[in-house]
Amino acid sequence: MEVINALGRRKRAIARVFVSEGTGKITINKRDLAQYFPSTILQYVVKQPLNKLDAAEKYDIKVNLSGGGFTGQSQALRLAISRALVKINAEDKSALRSEGFMTRDPRSVERKKPGRPKARKRFQFSKR
User: Fold this and answer.
1) Could you give the CA distance from residue 96 to residue 114 in angstroms, rounded to a whole number?
2) How does 51-75 read in b/e, with b if 16+ C-beta sit within 10 Å?
3) I need a surface site. Which of 8, 29, 48, 109 has the fewest CB within 10 A?
4) CA–CA distance, 49 with 87 (Å, rounded to integer)
C-alpha cells in the first residue's frame, strides 16, 4: 500500500496526515502522540476514528500539525485521519459519518468590531 494523505482543519489548526501500513505508531511533528498530547482525553479524540473501525494497529500515521490550540489541533487531526481512512476504504464512510468524524466543524472566532473591546462585548455604560 502506498502512502495516503489527507487534510483536516478546525478553527486555526491544520493537520496534514500521511497514512501507511504499519504497527499503529502515530508521529506528530516528529514527536510521539503521548509526548505531543500529554492529555489522555486528547489522545482519545485523535484515536476515535481508528478505534471505531478497529484499525488502531494497522496503520502508521505521520502528521504535520500547525496553528491553533491543542483542542483544535486534536479535532483537526481526527478529521484528517477519518478522511484518510475513507480514501483507503470507501465503505467506512457511513460508520465514521454517523459518529460525526467526517464533518468539518465550521465554528471559528468571530472578528472584533470597531468601537468595541471584543466581538460582542461593550465598554461599561455610564449614565453620568
Assistant:
1) 42
2) ebbebeebbebbbbbeebeebbbbb
3) 109
4) 13
Q: In this structure, are residues 76 and 13 in contact, taking their beta carbons and an 8 Å threshold?
A: yes
Domain ranges in the chain are: 4-99
Q: Under a CB-based contact definition with an 8 Å cutoff, are residues 13 and 69 in contact?
A: yes
Domain 4-99 has CATH 3.30.70.100: no
Q: Residue 110 in 3-state DSSP?
A: coil
- Cα separation, 61 vs 16, in Å, equals 10
pLDDT in tens, the chain (128 residues): 688 899 999 999 999 999 998 888 999 999 999 999 999 999 999 999 988 888 888 889 999 999 999 999 999 999 999 999 999 888 888 998 998 999 999 999 999 999 999 999 999 999 98
How many degrees, rounded to 5, is the angle at CA 69 between CA 16 and CA 56?
Answer: 50
C-alpha cell belonging to residue 64: 504535520
pLDDT of residue 1: 66
